């Protein structure tokens, strides 16, 4: 996998990092068969040999586009924070690990949006207390709801974004969240 680059997050995937966040995927990467970016979760079609991060013209972003991207940063940080806290509350070790990995993936998505919008600071979000979700089933149910909301967000607002590459990034991240829906609903019934 020499020089395999994720065009969504810009990270190079190599034999040292391909297994990162593996608990956040339905199917895992192997050294000879890479299926996802281990950093942002983008599927294989976004991993390009010698590829370069998608670029976009930030000056073309109007106020509406900037608002959409700013909200996407908040949405992903909110979800990343949820998973971080859910990983502490969860009882089952497999669920804990999955939440930890999902947290890292969502925080990476926030980073991608920050870069798109040229935002330097992390937004301040409310410090949520999720301790009332006192079973893994409830945590998974809440996780699944968040993922559905994220997919709806990307689908709805990508129509208002004009830049083709930003649309591509929204589509990639939406696919990642779609798999998270499957992942969190699968665990629920297990
Ligand atoms: Zn990536």
Mean pLDDT: 95
Taking the alpha carbons of the first and last residues, their distance comes to 34 Å
Kindly identify the CATH topology of the domain at 59-189: Ferritin
Main sheet makeup: 3 strands, antiparallel
| Number of alpha- plus pi-helical segments | 4
Please provide the count of β strands. 3
CATH class category of the domain at 59-189: Mainly Alpha
Radius of gyration: 16 Å
**Which ligands, by name, code or SMILES, are bound?**
zinc ion
What topology, given as strand order, has the largest sheet? 2-1-3
Q: CATH homologous superfamily of the domain at 59-189?
A: Ferritin, core subunit, four-helix bundle
β-strand amount:
under 5%
Q: Stretches where pLDDT falls below 50 for ≥5 residues?
A: none
Please provide a written account of the structure:
This protein is mostly helical. The protein has a domain at 59-189: Ferritin, core subunit, four-helix bundle (Ferritin), CATH 1.20.1260. 53% of the residues lie in helices and 4% in strands. It has helices at 63-89, 93-117, 136-158, 164-189; strands spanning 4-6, 12-13, 47-49. It has a three-stranded antiparallel β-sheet, with no helix packed on it. Strand 1 (4-6) and strand 2 form a beta hairpin. Helix 2 runs antiparallel to helix 4 (164-189) and helix 3 packs antiparallel against helix 4. The mean pLDDT is 95. The structure holds zinc ion.
Please tag this protein with its features:
binds zinc ion, 190 residues, 4 helices, mainly alpha, Putative trifunctional 2-polyprenylphenol hydroxylase/glutamate synthase subunit beta/ferritin domain-containing protein, globular, Ferritin-like, Ferritin, three-stranded antiparallel beta sheet
């Amino acid at each position: 996998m020499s020089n395999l680059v994720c065009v969504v997050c810009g990270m190079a995937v190599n034999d040292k990092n391909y297994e990162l966040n593996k608990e956040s995927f339905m199917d895992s990467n192997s050294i000879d068969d890479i299926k996802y970016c281990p950093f942002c979760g983008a599927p294989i079609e976004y991993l390009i040999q010698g590829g370069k991060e998608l670029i976009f013209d930030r000056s073309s972003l109007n106020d509406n586009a900037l608002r959409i991207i700013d909200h996407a940063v908040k949405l992903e940080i909110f979800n990343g924070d949820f998973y971080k806290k859910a990983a502490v509350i969860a009882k089952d070790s497999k669920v804990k690990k999955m939440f930890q990995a999902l947290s890292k993936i969502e925080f990476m998505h926030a980073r991608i949006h920050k870069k798109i919008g040229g935002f330097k600071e992390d937004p301040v979000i409310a410090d949520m207390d999720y301790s009332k979700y006192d079973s893994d089933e409830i945590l998974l149910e809440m996780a699944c709801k968040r993922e559905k909301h994220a997919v709806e967000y990307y689908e709805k607002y990508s129509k208002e974004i004009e830049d083709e590459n930003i649309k591509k990034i929204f589509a990639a991240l939406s696919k990642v969240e779609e798999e998270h829906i499957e992942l969190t609903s699968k665990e629920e019934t297990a």
